[in-house]
Amino acid sequence: MCTTTNSTCQNGATNYPLCNNTTNLFPSVKVTAKPTSIKEGNTTVISWTSTKAVSCDAGAGNGKGTTGSFKTGVLTTNTSYSVVCIDAKGSKGSGNVYVTVSPNNISNTFPTIKVTAYPTVTECNDGKDNDKDGLIDIKDPNCHEENDLTKPYNAKSYSESSYKTVTPPNKPIAVGETSTISWTSTNTTSCDAGIGTSTNPNGSFITEALSESRSYTVTCKGDKGEVSSDAFVNVLDVYKFPVVTVTATPASVDSGKTSKISWTSTNATSCNAGIGRGTGTTGSFDTGPLVKTTSYTVTCIGPNGQKGGNTSVSINGGDNVLPEEPTIGKPQCSDDKDNNGNGLIDGKDPNCHAGGDIKATYDPTHDSESTP
Description:
The chain is mainly beta and 372 residues long. It has no helices and 22 strands.
């Protein structure tokens, strides 16, 4: 205000009529928001500029400069922001902006998840006729919905005897088998079941071959938080099937020669190598003279079923090679053959000499290169 016509106004004017010109009398402040309208749960940036100000206050930690900006926190309701500036004479000016926050239609429900473990191999996908009706897997009506071949096939059905929607969760598996880990979730945007697995809210993966029991954890995230759950895979040694190893020594022979078949087993109570060849969990037998490639199978039985192992003996030169005619009337020490496999024939073999001494007298009538 002015007290006389010659007084000085607050705006510095000395002419009384100019006292009514209040333009730029106080610091001016312009405050903006970018954007001014956001969805719930988002942020915006508040900026300001000023004139005739020496300092401004945008709120604790938001800045003191005559110009500036700051990022808001996450907003859930409509919010007003003010910036107050002061000039050299202590006069104040302020500006404000109003940020409108609208609902984002995000569910207010906390995420949920269910994780289960199923044996990967079931009666409806194991390639076997488990109910002995001559029908395997997809060809068995009991592996289809409503026990009807015209209905959808379900490889997860665990029985060929009667249709089951899914395998019972957490059914034990044998050492060396795999399990399928599946999860379903609600109010989630992504899930983490481990490296290399799906990140979808619903998914599954097949484990590696397991040698011991273990848990698998799946973590899912939603707009309202995070949730985890796990499934336990029970691996039982008592569910081990027999393991059979069959070998032939040698694996190939000359036509008319023999080989030795041997077998070992684990998780077995008895084995069958064929009539007269043995029933022990380990054993061996001689093939007899062979003139063609021949396969041999040993089947072993254990508490949880039976498994077989096999091997074969091939003929050097092929199956069409005839056995070598035996030398008749000639003893080993004069038949031009290396009969004991030491690389020495007839007179060059010490055993064809008296006392086994190569320097002693050679006896071509001796019938053994193995003993003197």
